[in-house]
Design a protein that fits this description.
Strand order of the largest sheet: 1-2-3
Helix content: 55-70%
Structural class: mainly alpha
CATH topology of the largest domain: hpI Integrase, Chain A
Largest sheet: 3 strands, antiparallel
CATH architecture of the largest domain: Orthogonal Bundle
CATH class of the largest domain: Mainly Alpha
Low-confidence stretches: 345-351, 355-369, 474-479, 568-639
Number of domains: 4
Radius of gyration: 48 Å
Mean pLDDT: 72
Strand content: under 5%
Number of strands: 5
Length: 761
């Protein structure tokens, strides 16, 4: 391989006519891939000329030559042959001595003649980068036609069209290349839910497809990503589900799979994502994209849309949609997994949508686009009565019909006529709106000489436009009243009715709350009296010395069980801990004694006696447990124990309530957690807790020294209220009465301690 051979070969490729797609079939059947006869015919006039500039000066004119991409492909193939010769030591030339400036000049010629030939041949202009923009607005029509086509007459036709629909939706949502789907296996897919954020109402499902090989992988595994679309007709995940459901219904390829088959990767890893369901095709072989591209072309022809870049249609649509939605270019590039230079040169048109909005009168690019006059549409007769409308609609229909007959082409004419039709509508809208806001311009020459602007139809249309503009509040917003007349009055009436109903509901709630509270208090008093009589009866039975021992033990057990059942904290523990049993606590009857002292004579022999519940040292604390637990737990609000240490107590009953609270009283917490629950308390909290503990102990001793517990508690309550004692004052009272030991200071010297002892003696 040397310069002369390469130059002659590339010269022939540069100035030959383009081949039809697929090449020369006759030569390919004979395993001939280079047409020597065509080479001789083209190069015969240049025999004897040296390669280089002299040959280029006499180059022939070619109407449809190869493009730069084909030239670069030939160059890459020659470079591979050159590298193979270097490895075999059959060529010692450096590549720079092979690819000389004459070949570089040939390359520049191919690159520069593209635009010249395009103009000479009057090629279509609505192609390349801007054709996807024309299709973004028709995305809904494209999907609708794909869905209609999938409503076939056979399963094979239905599955094939559902497959095409899935390909377009997933390529658009994931911004992927078509070959990524044709090479994909079913085993390349996985899905998971993203962590749900606080503002998310529903969890978000993410579908991931591995792409182990592709144009830009470079040994890395890339990923296609998509999630469920807000609109079901555009959802790629739903499209995949529909395609696979119908496919599996026909093929039943996994119906006979066993657990062993699923555990053996070689039996299902190679099954492709896209397959034909004809029953003959191998589902492990890659499917060609011709069927998809042909179907997309047929569909675009029916819609009158450009038909270039068929396999990459979804990738182009996804890119342009994000760009029109003002997404950052870096995010688009990452989504499509492009090389930065490739994206900037070939995929990004850098449309400054924000600046376009501002120049159109919208200061902030984040504001919505709202233009009242665009919502008022003229009728078809008025549209066709303008000079432009007199021909544009007929011409557009005719060109579309010819495009259907010739199966393509005329893209520029179609889009130009559509542009004129849109401009025709804009003309009527702006002409009417201008007279509404600038009435003085009605004497313009245009208004006085165009027949359509003097017609009755335009006058009626101008009235519709004036009404729409009159009800507009601002250029960015319109009142609800202009869209839905009377809705504001309905809203005000509804609001008033809701307020009245809310007041009735509040009053009803208060009445129900009072009734429930009164009923609860009445039930509590009744249950208290009856249980107190029951406890007195059990006490008399226990004091009966003539009772048999077995019966006494049964009554004692019954006595203890009643106390445990009525102890709400013990009951809660029993429910949470199963068979765990606790000893009954020693509490006082203060909770119910201060609510009612009346006795019900109908409860004999269970009514309470006039004497106290404990008349001797053998009296058990279960009696007071039973009585104290008769209060209704819902009648008082439970507070955190450490928050109840600071407030000033107004009665002895409040102190006993804190200690005997069945939910989080001090006794319950000490029994459950020991000292751990108050290990983080401050010194003042610990001091308050110590004083309350001593008061509780003193009350216990005080009522045991009295014949009647009720009277004892009432006496203490009277002392507490009359003397207005604080917690510290109550401790001093019990110390003075001898029910609490006076603690000695630990910081005194021996001499001071001896003096104190002498004083006490």
């Amino acid at each position: 391989m040397n310069f002369d051979k390469i130059y002659l070969f590339m010269f022939f490729q540069t100035f030959r006519q383009q081949k039809k797609r697929g090449g020369n079939r006759k030569l390919q059947k004979q395993d001939i891939y280079f047409d020597a006869e065509a080479y001789d015919n083209l190069m015969r006039p240049f025999a004897g000329l040296s390669p280089g500039q002299r040959l280029l000066e006499n180059a022939p004119h070619v109407e449809n030559p190869i493009s730069e991409s084909q030239f670069a492909t030939y160059k890459a193939a020659l470079r591979r042959i050159y590298n193979a010769q270097i490895n075999k030591n059959v060529n010692s030339l450096h590549w720079d001595h092979v690819w000389l400036p004459a070949l570089k000049e040939l390359h520049r010629l191919v690159r520069s003649r593209k635009l010249i030939i395009k103009r000479l041949q009057h090629q279509e202009k609505v192609t390349g980068e801007f054709s996807p923009y024309a299709m973004v607005g028709h995305y809904n029509d494209i999907e609708d036609m794909l869905w209609t086509d999938s409503n076939g007459r056979s399963w094979r036709q239905t599955v094939a069209n559902l497959r095409h629909r899935y390909c377009l939706l997933f390529l658009t949502s994931g911004i992927l290349r078509c070959e990524s789907l044709t090479k994909a296996d079913l085993s390349d897919h996985l899905s998971f839910y993203l962590p749900q954020r606080d503002q998310d109402i529903h969890p978000m499902l993410l579908l991931i497809m591995q792409i182990p090989e592709g144009k830009v992988n470079n040994g890395r595994t890339l990923f296609g990503r998509a999630t469920r679309h807000k609109l079901p007709q555009f959802c790629p995940v739903g499209a995949l589900a529909m395609y696979l459901q119908c496919r599996f219904h026909v093929t039943r390829e996994f119906n006979n799979f066993t657990i062993e088959d699923w555990c053996t990767n070689s039996r299902w890893f190679d099954i492709k994502l896209l397959v034909d369901v004809d029953g003959i095709s191998d589902r492990t072989q890659e499917m060609r994209s011709d069927g998809y591209s042909k179907h997309i072309k047929e569909m675009l022809l029916k819609l009158g849309l450009p038909t270039n870049n068929l396999c990459h249609l979804g990738r182009k649509l996804g890119t342009k949609t994000l760009e029109l939605l003002e997404e950052e270019s870096e995010s688009i590039r990452r989504m499509g997994q492009w090389n930065p230079s490739v994206f900037d040169n070939y995929y990004s048109t850098k449309l400054p949508i924000g600046s376009i909005r501002k120049l159109a009168g919208y200061v902030s690019k984040s504001n919505i686009y709202y233009n009242t006059r665009t919502t008022v549409n003229p009728n078809d007769a008025l549209l066709r009565s303008t000079p432009m409308g007199s021909f544009v609609y007929t011409a557009l229909d005719g060109v579309l019909e010819q495009a259907q007959i010739h199966r393509g082409g005329y893209d520029t004419a179609i889009h130009f006529l559509r542009c004129l039709a849109e401009l025709n509508k804009v003309f009527l809208q702006d002409a009417a709106a201008l007279l509404c806001v600038k009435e003085e311009r009605s004497n313009h020459f245009m208004y006085q000489n165009l027949a359509v602007l003097e017609s009755q139809a335009f006058y009626d249309f101008k009235g519709q436009m004036a009404s729409a503009i009159r009800h507009e509040v601002s250029p960015l917003d319109a009142t609800v009243e202009s869209v839905l007349p009377g809705v504001l009055e309905i809203q005000r009436t509804t609001h008033s009715m809701v307020e009245q109903l809310g007041g009735k509901v509040d009053r009803f709630h208060e009445a129900v709350h009072e009734a429930v509270h009164e009923a609860t208090r009445s039930i509590s008093e009744d249950v208290t009296r009856k249980l107190q009589g029951l406890c007195n009866h059990l006490k008399r039975c226990l004091d009966d010395k003539q009772m048999e021992g077995n019966r006494r033990r049964k009554l004692a057990h019954c006595f203890t069980s009643i106390g445990q059942l009525l102890n709400m904290s013990e009951l809660d523990d029993a429910e949470s801990d199963g068979d765990t049993r606790h000893e009954p606590e020693r509490t006082f009857a203060g909770n119910n004694l201060f609510e009612s002292k009346e006795q019900d004579p109908s409860t004999e022999p269970f009514e309470s006696e006039e004497q106290g519940l404990s008349t001797g040292p053998n009296a058990t604390s279960a009696t007071t447990v039973a009585i104290s637990r008769t209060r209704v737990s819902g009648c008082s609000t439970v507070t955190s124990p450490e928050k109840r240490l600071a407030p000033k107590y107004h009665s002895l009953k409040e102190i006993l309530d804190d200690w005997q609270d069945p939910n989080n009283g001090f006794l319950v917490l000490d029994k459950k957690y020991g000292r751990n629950w108050r290990k983080d308390w401050s010194d003042s909290q610990k001091t308050s807790f110590s004083r309350l503990s001593r008061i509780y102990s003193a009350v216990e001793k005080y009522i045991e020294s009295k014949p009647d517990h009720n009277e004892a508690l009432e006496e203490l309550e009277d002392v507490f209220k009359k003397k207005r004692l604080s917690v510290r004052g109550m401790v001093c009272f019990f110390q003075a009465e001898g029910y609490l030991h006076v603690q000695k200071s630990r910081g005194r010297t021996k001499q001071q301690q001896s003096a104190d002892d002498a004083i006490e003696v």
